[in-house]
Automatic annotation (TrEMBL):
Name the record gives this protein: GNAT family N-acetyltransferase
Gene3D superfamilies: 3.40.630.30
Xref: Pfam families: Acetyltransf_7 (PF13508)
N-acetyltransferase domain residues: 18-193
């Protein structure tokens, strides 16, 4: 997709009835259990144990460069979290970048590892999906971030990939397998200058 075909990335409007707000590191750590609950409901049987997910969020916001949590809240700026986007600067010393680095290099796509944001998670509660919350979270992040690129992994099929493609993401490695597992994922990327 060329830049002429891709929609311009501008901050999304607030979805009707919801407020988008970045959580500071302390607040994100404090609300990590709620983020895990949203993640668990959105992912269903694919979810990792929620306590582990919550601890990973806490570690990320306390220790990782560029960590961010952008939340969609119902009922105002202090409302209940109904969706969120979570990520950080892509750092090659972390587990996930180490997992994907070889596959990207094998495809000649190692530049995607430079000046990149690692989108760790984007989840919306099932009962409010389809209201533009995921789109608003992602377009806000793309518009606000200082990075040139975003890299993520998604289920090979499903609504998430449709959202990413609609916003200009491309397949980098469409049939990726994590070391020592049969778990399949699609590695996707977005580049501000494409």
């Amino acid at each position: 997709m060329t830049s002429a075909e891709r929609p311009a990335v501008t901050p999304a409007e607030q979805p009707a009835g919801f407020v988008l707000r970045r959580l500071g590191g302390t607040e994100a750590a404090h609300r990590a259990d709620r983020l895990a609950a949203v993640y668990g409901q959105a992912q269903g049987s694919r979810a990792e144990p929620l306590a582990h997910f919550a601890e990973n969020v806490r570690t990320c916001v306390r220790e990782y460069a560029g960590a961010t949590v952008l939340a969609a809240l119902s009922g105002g700026t202090d409302g209940e979290i109904v969706g969120f986007l979570h990520g950080c600067d892509l750092q090659l010393q972390h587990w996930w970048p180490q997992q994907i680095e070889g596959a990207l290099r094998a495809k000649g796509r190692e530049t995607w590892l430079q000046d990149a944001f690692e989108l760790i998670e984007l989840d919306v509660l099932p009962q409010v999906q389809g209201r533009g919350i995921g789109t608003a979270l992602l377009t806000r992040q793309l518009a606000d971030m200082p990075h040139r690129r975003v890299v993520l992994s998604a289920e090979p099929e499903g609504r998430a990939r449709e959202l990413y493609r609609r916003l200009g993401f491309v397949d980098l490695v469409p049939d990726f397998a994590y070391d020592g597992t049969d778990y399949r994922a699609a590695l996707m990327g977005w580049d501000r200058q494409r």
